[in-house]
Design a protein that fits this description.
The protein is α/β, with parallel strands linked by helices. It has a single domain, classed as Flavodoxin domain (Rossmann fold), CATH 3.40.50. The protein is 38% helix and 15% strand. The protein is built from ten helices and nine strands. Strands 4, 5, 6, 7, 8 and 9 form a six-stranded parallel β-sheet that branches. Strands 1-2-3 form a three-stranded antiparallel β-sheet, with no helix packed on it. The radius of gyration is 28 Å and the shape is globular. The N and C termini lie far apart (72 Å). It comes from Hypsibius exemplaris. InterPro entries: Flavoprotein-like_sf, FMN_Rdtase-like_dom, NAD(P)H-dep_reductase. One of its GO terms (molecular function) is FMN binding.
């Protein structure tokens, strides 16, 4: 027997808990509606950053070998103070830091990258030395100003001297800066593409430093809390990926 309920026709069902409609609507069991189920999910939370438990966890992991590339050779450059900031930041977290400064290395323009030599023994010794440092690193930090809405030529020049396989399957973090208010963010976007081509895994958390001459002292000390927070986020990502990728490389190698 059908009865009219509002605008829809409802047919009585032998099971009083279910109403069957002649309209396209889906029948819903009142039994399901009135018997909610509670699911308990246990989430393991990290200990507070400054707690003894956090210190124990940090101490349990060995320090990493991090290579920092500076990207400027210009007179009056801010790359040195940014490099000092990154170095102090990582060394406080018990990591070994090596800075590669293109001005000190003085490699010049890339005329023939290391991997373009038919006979590698003919390549300059300095290229072999730097390539070995890259291969032994657990991760990279690239420091760049923004020139004409892009990364600096000096940074591309030094990194392009070496094959992607030397950088491969290691994490990379981006640090950009500018004298203006945007902190070199356009250079950072270009660096993401560049670092991907080198087969590194670049971090989503970056350090972007606007008004760098005010944000950092000449010694590399930060003058703002916001910079410290961004730096903490980047370091955590870099450490996590560096340990994870190092374990995988040591266990299974890298794709051929």
């Amino acid at each position: 027997m059908a009865r009219n309920v509002g605008y829809r026709n409802t047919v009585e069902s032998p099971d009083p808990s279910v109403q069957v409609s002649s309209s396209p609507a889906i029948a819903i069991s009142s039994t399901l509606c009135h018997r909610p189920q509670t699911v308990q999910i246990q989430v393991e939370q990290e200990p507070p950053q400054n707690s003894p438990a956090a210190a124990t966890m940090a101490a349990a992991r060995p320090g990493l070998n991090i290579l920092v590339f500076l990207g400027s050779v210009r007179e009056g450059r801010m790359a040195l103070r940014v490099g000092r900031y990154v170095q102090q930041l990582l060394e406080k977290r018990q990591h070994k830091v090596t800075i590669l400064d293109p001005k000190e290395l003085n490699l010049g323009e890339v005329e023939q990258p290391l991997h373009f030599y038919k006979d590698p023994s003919l390549a300059p010794v300095i290229l072999h030395q730097i390539n070995k440092q890259i291969q032994e690193a657990d991760g990279f930090v690239v420091v760049s100003a923004e020139y004409n809405s892009g990364m600096t030529p000096a940074l591309a020049s030094i990194m392009d001297n070496f094959p992607p396989v030397s950088y491969g399957y290691r994490p990379s973090a981006i640090v950009t800066y500018s004298m203006g208010q945007f902190g070199g963010i356009r250079a950072a976007m270009q660096l993401r593409q560049f670092l991907s081509e080198l087969t590194t895994v670049h971090m989503s958390s970056m350090i972007v430093i606007p008004k760098v001459h005010e944000s950092l002292s000449e010694e590399g000390s930060a003058t703002s809390d916001s910079l410290a927070r961004a730096s903490e986020a980047m370091c955590k990502q870099l450490e996590w990926y560096a340990h994870a990728l190092k374990t995988e490389r040591n266990t299974n190698g890298i794709p051929k």
